[in-house]
Amino acid sequence: MNTLIISSSLAKSSKSFILCQEVHKRLQKLNVKSEIIDVRNFQLNPYHSIQSEELVHLENKISQADNLIIAMGVHNYSINDSLKIILDNCFKNVEGKFFGILCAAGGDKSYLSTMHLTQICMNEWKMIQLPRTVYASYKDFNNNTLKSKEVKDWMMLFCNEFASIGKKLMS
């Protein structure tokens, strides 16, 4: 099972990237082949402009992945502009793929903002979502480290189920 973890935040001290790193480590322990893509290292262009080489490379990585984990921050109770650019440019060959969502937000009340991403993936590409989402807020971090035992426990459950269900969908 080949899982691509996409960190969509452009923030220098991205909390969603920290979630990506934690999930990547846990999946490795579960013998799941995974790779993190950090879009801070990509040149992102709007959909109607010429695609950068990085976006073409990312589109190929996404197409080749068996499963996807998408990490997002919350922006106006929805996805950020960099994730929208990735969805528009790079999600051409994702129909039916299994995916999960990691979300880092400023507060505790934005947990439903991930539903916009769910709607896009399920309605546009008929993707299959893990029914668990990892949601963390500013209080769950300290010095750019995930400190919350509750979020860590939830993340463990997310990873175990993502690996288990992902493998079953592959067979």
Structural key phrases:
Rossmann fold, 5 helices, 24% strand, 5-stranded parallel beta sheet, 171 residues, alpha/beta
Give a structural overview.
- The protein is of the alpha/beta class.
- It has a single domain, classed as Flavodoxin domain (Rossmann fold).
- Helices cover 42% and strands 24% of the residues.
- The chain contains five helices and seven strands.
- A five-stranded parallel β-sheet has the order 2-1-3-4-5, sandwiched between helices.
- Strand 4 (98-105), helix 4 and strand 5 (128-137) form a beta-alpha-beta unit.
- The chain is globular and about 45 Å long.
- The chain starts with a strand and ends with a helix.
- The mean pLDDT is 92.
Major sheet description = 5 strands, parallel
Give the uncertain stretches in residue-range form. Answer: none
Coarse shape: globular
Radius of gyration: 15 Å
**Count of domains:** 1
Enumerate the strands of the largest sheet in spatial order, edge to edge or round the barrel: 2-1-3-4-5
Tally of alpha and pi helices: 5
> What structural class results from the helix and strand content?
alpha/beta
What is the CATH third-level topology name? Answer: Rossmann fold
- N→C terminal distance: 10 Å
Number of strands: 7
Write down the secondary-structure element order.
EHEHEHEHEEEH
The overall pLDDT, averaged over residues, is 92
* Residue fraction in strands: 15-25%
Just name the CATH architecture. 3-Layer(aba) Sandwich
Instruction: Kindly provide the name of the CATH class.
Output: Alpha Beta
